[in-house]
């Protein structure tokens, strides 16, 4: 498989749970060695999509091809070629670090010699050598995360799927974890990562934003920023909370957030600046308005606020 060929290909992928349509006609392609990020509000279909890609959930409609395997037909054969890491620590807390990795090695059918060498390599790489005899349940959040990653890549998968893997760890552990992910990508592993963190999204080579089970944006972080339809403004004033209340029902405002002593406002267009200024003056709020560079949070807010019928 060349780098230009898709490792993941979905066409019209849907998943229904009773009356709930969790994933709605998803078309998606992920190429080899990409670090593809999934963004989306809670309930947008990220976890459901990942579980279908793993073969853990049967789709209600559509086609899935992962590493040349058709899902669900070839789901069993695919298991040996993918790694899967969930948000919740899923290894055995009453086994040691070493025992967990030995158990996973046996599940993947590694010989004793191959397993021993691979486990030692991973213990060293993920800073767990001095924790090998420690029960997994007594590890810190960052240590558990590194152990889970070691277990997910033990069998050297071609594709690694990670479902919000950094939600329970501190910023330093998150940074170290992402360094490990880039090492895997550099070695040729394809990664699909769902995340809630915008700084993590910026690290991805490509992003897909899901909302209500549909893909509402797809591209590199730079491409998504260049296509941002909204216009960010920074409002400097002595009463940012009062300014926020004054702009609460303004149709031109897409989103607002207080940043320190200032108010950051995303408006529909640059022309809306005059309306914002007029609103603040009417509320007798003295303020300075200045343009602000866009960020991925602006993209996220904009594309997930569009009415469904207006989306592509």
UniProtKB/TrEMBL annotation:
Keyword ATP-binding: yes
Residue ranges occupied by any ABC transporter domain in the UniProt entry: 8-237
GO molecular function: ATP binding
Record's protein name: ABC transporter ATP-binding protein
PANTHER family per record: ABC TRANSPORTER G FAMILY MEMBER 20 ISOFORM X1, ATP-BINDING CASSETTE, SUB-FAMILY H, MEMBER 1
Pfam families listed in its UniProt record: ABC_tran
Coiled coil ranges: none
Naturally occurring in which organism (per UniProt): Pseudomonas benzenivorans
Keyword Kinase among record annotations: no
InterPro entries for this protein: AAA+_ATPase, ABC_transporter-like_ATP-bd, ABC_transporter-like_CS, P-loop_NTPase
